[in-house]
Amino acid sequence: MHVTEAQWSEVDCYVSDLLVGGDDHLAAALVASDEAGLPAISVSAPQGKFLSLLARAVGARRILEIGTLGGYSTIWLARALPADGRVVTLELDPHHAEVAESNLERAGLGALVEVRRGRATESLAALIEERVEPFDLVFIDADKSSTPHYVTASLELSHPGTVVVIDNAVRDGAVADLDNTGADVVGMRTAFELLAADPRIEATVVQTVGVKGYDGFAFGVVSA
Ligand code: SAH
Ligand code: DHB
Ligand code: MG
């Protein structure tokens, strides 16, 4: 069997048209992000809808996102919230944060989302220090080399049953190539080793293909 990247994209287009649902605000967010010079590295539409469905499935009222970019995944996540829900999303780049806030505002989600500027390590330390109410779902999608730290901090901000999702977990298979010692790959592998060793969480990795190439999500559920 010979499967091509063109087929992955065709299937994503097919699924997007049939099931995911077109939306002017999501489309506008991508256009505005592109026009503002942000890289096209948001999750795909089917992945965004998946995150949204996952948030709904767990009845998430409080969501933590690490890595906002233009807020595309943030819109999907915020759409899953009840009226009194909240997304706290962490972004280092002030330009990205500004574009995201404008995209969220346009989508009518400004009141549900807080974009916290600064290094995620510092924002996470502040959230822990503030003793904020634990999050029901955490989406980790920032600088990959810091993923181990983000996993550890997420556990501090979780309750039994919290779902932790990590994007870009596979990266063309690089994660399993032990000769690859790039900081991003080592970061992801170290994060998985933490997940494997920590009795507070049970985790797996699901590989994905699509318009964003060959990659995957890691999923963990915090133990009771
Ligand atoms: N979740 C987004 C994509 C995020 S891309 C989506 O799917 O739509 C990764 C983002 O993480 C970028 O905007 C980048 O600026 C941000 N980032 C990188 N290093 C960071 C850090 N140390 N702290 C917070 N954000 C960071
Ligand atoms: C890239 C993709 C991502 O989804 C991300 O979060 C960061 C970087 C990339 O393709 O470089
Ligand atoms: Mg990503």
Explain how this protein is built.
This protein has 224 residues and is an alpha/beta fold. The chain has a single domain (5-222), classed as Rossmann fold, CATH 3.40.50. 43% of the residues lie in helices and 23% in strands. It is built from eight helices and seven strands. Strands 3-2-1-4-5-7-6 form a seven-stranded mixed sheet, with helices on both faces. Helix 6 (120-129) runs parallel beside helix 7 (147-156) and helix 7 (147-156) packs parallel to helix 8 (183-197). The model has no long low-confidence stretch (mean pLDDT 97). Residues 41-43, 67-69, 72-73, 90-93, 96, 119-120, 141-143, 146 line the site of S-adenosyl-L-homocysteine.
Quick summary of this structure?
Strands 3-2-1-4-5-7-6 form a seven-stranded mixed beta sheet, with helices on both faces. The chain is of the alpha/beta class.
- Gyration radius from CA atoms, angstroms: 17 Å
CATH architecture: 3-Layer(aba) Sandwich
Largest sheet features: 7 strands, mixed
* CATH fold group: Rossmann fold
Broad shape = globular
Q: CATH homologous superfamily - what is it?
A: Vaccinia Virus protein VP39
Low-pLDDT stretches are none
Strand order of the largest sheet: 3-2-1-4-5-7-6
Order of helices and strands: HHHEHEHEHEHEHEE
The CATH class name reads: Alpha Beta
E-strand count: 7
